Amino acid sequence: xxxxxxxxxxxxxxxxxxxxxxxxxxxxRALELVKRHCAKLDIELLDGNVALRGLALQRDTRGNRxxxxxxxxxFTVTGEQxxxxxxxxxxxxxxxxxxxxxxxxxxxxxPVATQHEAKVIQLQDxxxxxxxxxx
Length: 135
Fold this sequence. Notes:
Largest sheet: 4 strands, antiparallel
């Protein structure tokens, strides 16, 4: 027969296993949210994963202090530089996503002179024409 101590130990192990199983689901949800966020910002998530950094008490959107799981990840904009990001999760709910500062790439535009044929007007000519129009 099981003693009370054995039963307590068994229930404790089951609770830890359930907590770890639930944590895996939360990690998968965090990864999905990070992938979506990176795609929206047109940056690349490196290694395709998030790593559990720890647990912390943080304020949620209502201002209540709650236990949050904190995950770290890395991303790149240029393909050369690894930058860090983090995500906090309150259960399955997103707390916030924070990214290191990164350069924003803009599409390269052609110089104005090559887009259209440039027409240069000398200042003296322009003044003469406008002086005649005023009179």
